[in-house]
Amino acid sequence: MTHPLRAQPPIRIGLSIAALLLAAATLxxxxxDTLRIGVSCPFTGGSSDMGISARNGIRLAAEEINTMxxxxxGKQIELVERDDQASPELGKKIADELIGKDKVVxxxxxxxxxxxxxSIDSYQNAKVPLIIAVSxxxxxxxxxxxxPEHYIFRVSPREELQAPFIxxxxxxxxxxxxxxxxxxTGYGDAGKxxxxxxxxxxxxxxxxxxxxxxxxxxxxxxxxxxxxxxxDVVISYTVGPEAAVLAKSIEKxxxxxxxxxxxxxxxxxxxxPAGSAGEGALVAVSFIQQASFQRRNAFIAAYRQKYNTPxxxxxxxxxxxxxxxxxxxxxxxxxxxxxxAKIRAALENLERPVAGVITTYDHPFSKADHDALSANMLVxxxxxxxxxxxxxxxxxxxxxxxxxxxx
Length: 407
Known about the structure:
Layout: E1 2-3, H1 17-25, E2 34-41, H2 48-69, E3 76-83, H3 88-100, E4 106-109, H4 113-126, E5 130-132, E6 152-154, H5 159-172, E7 178-183, H6 186-201, E8 208-212, H7 220-228, E9 233-237, H8 240-252, E10 258-261, H9 268-274, E11 282-285, H10 294-307, H11 315-335, H12 340-347, E12 354-355, E13 360-361, E14 379-384, E15 387-390, H13 393-398
Parallel strand pairs: 2-3, 2-4, 4-5, 5-6, 7-8, 7-9, 9-10, 10-11
Antiparallel strand pairs: 1-3, 11-14, 12-13, 14-15
Helix pairs in contact: 2-11, 3-4, 5-6, 8-9, 11-12
């Protein structure tokens, strides 16, 4: 499905008006055709919270660009959206179609690590930029890092950053006996490896490692094993629905243990189904849907109004999707070209800061570094009364200050 994005959004998120007008002043005259940008995410199934949220964030940014300055490089942005259903095989097929049939100049998306693992070769081999807005699997930006021309970029905190952050939180609370629950997808594999690496740095190993397939309906036996092993903290690496199954299984065993997890614990399809079992769960995120600096507040208001919902299903995915589209816009504008090779080169050397929802991006990428976010942008959230809040008051206070990328 294509999405031409010509409707006027009533709230402007603040691509800075001055920056937009400056960009518009140097754009060539508008041409009737469009600039096609792929969007590959799961819009159905257990991963749909992040896919729909990312797509909606991308749409907000694209609409803002189209309606405020008439597009980029003389063309309106047209999103070519595809539901990859979190299927690696379907995701690979979609990548090939977006490149070969739809002739996209770049793609934004990729929510699941397994999908990314099968898709990135297509973009790299075709020399078409892929900006991963959601998936946090560490290997995705590493595979081609040593190649002279690397086409895979990311605007999400990789597990190599999240896992040590999660482990450090457990240790700070005096919790050293980790039960690690990871699904058997590429995401679970990558998360497990990064958690074990972070534990090893503290001279620890998990007391229990439990693996399970997506679609599992009960984890009571695995929870019993983890409890019998003496675990005092459970670390979760899976998507929202299965994380809810884990939380409910812990509650069923009447086990008073701290649950800490990667960012799927912030999704609505974890918080809703988990109910009381999810209360108090700690989650590592780059964005929390709470009052913050002006740009974040405007983004939250725009999302709520545009999509008629008080709560974003996966706030971090929505914010990162918006930011990824803005970074791509500035790269195309800087390149003054829709040629993928020139877009890649511009992404690696953006000449002006880009004010985003997660951060202000000042040279977010380089030839050697294709990950835009750094560890200092992570905060610890807590599920409280059916929403994600800041776990620490000082983080809530810090959220009013933009956290820039660490050197």
